[in-house]
Amino acid sequence: MPQPGFLKKRNLCLLNEGEWESLCDNCGFCCLYRVLYDDTEEVYLTRVMCSCYDLKAGKCSVYEKRFEVNPDCTRITAENIAGLTWLPPHCAYRLAYENQSLPENRPLFSRKRRRSGQRELERVLGGRVVLYEDGLDLCDYIVWKC
Questions:
Q1: Domain range for residue 50?
Q2: 49 lies in some domain
Q3: What's the pLDDT at 82?
Q4: Which of 78, 83, 99, 145 would give a disulfide with 12, using CB separation of 3.0 to 4.6 Å?
Q5: With contact defined as beta carbons under 8 Å apart, do 102 and 108 qualify?
Q6: Domain assignment of residue 1, yes or no
Q7: Domain presence at residue 27
Q8: How many domains does the chain have?
Q9: Is residue 96 scored above 80 in pLDDT?
């Protein structure tokens, strides 16, 4: 596991795969569906989660194969992070991109048990999180504009 100060020494593009992956807190925000209105290019976050996300465990159930299982899965890279403006302010990828310090109590630096992923998402989003199913109208689950 990387040491807490590893980001201070490196450009994001120079992180190895393990260091890059260790930034992820498994918060699930990048697994939430977003609605893009083509005419305005506005992006809205929904309370609809990828069907591969395990709400009880608070993480992707197919993480190692996520891009094969779900080709629409969001791939966050040092090269595309600037365009992912919908990432929440607490996202470690976003914080690292913005050259901000990572909080010391995040899972990367602390082994403290955190709340259930589902409860935390529902607290932040202000409502019940649902897993995606075919035919679900994402517009019925919009939470806020990104």
A1: 6-145
A2: yes
A3: 92
A4: 78
A5: yes
A6: no
A7: yes
A8: 1
A9: yes
